[in-house]
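Hey, can you fold this one?
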Amino acid sequence: MYRNPIDTLRPPAIGLLVTGCLNAAMGFVTLVSGLTRIAGLTGHETLPHEQSERIGYFLGTIGSYCIAVASLLLAPVIIYAAVQMMKGQKRSLAMIASVLAILPLTSCCCFPVGIAFGIWSLIVLSKPEIKGFFNGEAPRQF
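Sure. Predicted structure:
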């Protein structure tokens, strides 16, 4: 029985789309909350008294902002690749987006979602019939 490759690609592509949207949302929320904290809109914040605790506090804060910026920069790539994957186009970009979704540095909070959909997408994109579809060897029925 013939199954349309687009039907095989659509569910993991939707998962990548959800991952990209979650990454963008979490990155945005993290940056906005950080900016309100820096601007002093959250109230008076007391820093730890110990030097080592203060260093850890600043490193953690800077690290979370870096991850938020990475999420905001990479989320559009994941989203665009997911849309192209749903159309059966740009397999290499879909593979890159799948790997980006798996990496914990693109978004710590969405990492479990990203790893599940990223691995699923890689498995689907590695199937010979899907590779053939992207290479134009299979019929493009919609």
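The chain has a mean pLDDT of 84. Let me know if you want another pass with a different chain boundary.
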